[in-house]
Amino acid sequence: MRPLTAENLDYALDHSPAADRFFRRLQAALAGAGLPVEAVKTEGAPGQVEVTFPYGGALAACDGHLAFKHAVRAIGSRAGLAPTFMAAPETGVGSGLHLHLSLWKDGTSVISDSGGALSAPAQNAIAGLLDALPQMGVLYAPNINSYKRYAPGSFAPTTASWGHDNRTCAIRVVGHGEGRHLEVRVPGADANPYLALAAAVAAMNHGIEHRLTPGPAEASDAYREGATPLPSTLHQAQIAFRHSPTVREALGADVVEHYAHLAQLELDHHHRIVTDAERRRWLSRA
Fold first, then answer.
1. What is the distance, to the nearest Å, from the Cα of residue 1 to the centroid of all Cα atoms in its chain?
2. What residues does 99 pair with on adjacent strands?
């Protein structure tokens, strides 16, 4: 297989006829299903595409995401394409499922205070995300491949960090006025949207209920040493998830055991599989 596009076409205005046909058919199909898109654009890696949707309710967004994935696969297959939602489909390539979350009360955004600074509930929510998300990896990064997306310099986060319009952070504060919100950048494109969103909302609730406060915003490179790391393997994530009092309080013991067991099944599946990469590295060297 070869990528649909051969180079970095991030924000490009011109696309190949094959790519242009696919994008137009996808937009038409989604609009017909009641899922109008905000934008469809090529991204930085060859063959990589970003699709964004208007804001909406949480459950409806998750339902729509599943319909979107089905449409991408069906329309792509008819066009002779092979779409994938792998978090790391190629070495050095990462694709995310960024969640954009806001805080509202009585129809009004409460993410900013009267002076325009982050409100106390917003700071609590950020602190909850930073505290809990490193312990919830199995919910937003569910398989072995998921963790190959997290690499320094990749714009995929590797630390529990936050900042204002800082794409190296796990939590990015973005927007203005009532459009100001939190972008949670940790889930990969392979994430189950219901579980990834449940993890983020539970983490925000954890911070608000316990009135946690975040450290200073990261103003430069969040890949620096010293910050709290996100799990770098499914094995690390499963251990943190299974033994976290915070996760058990937020989700309940039955849920924790179920998804920890699911992660173990994934680990066991891969444990004895011999890969092409191993053969290339060791066939003539061992």
1. 25
2. 184
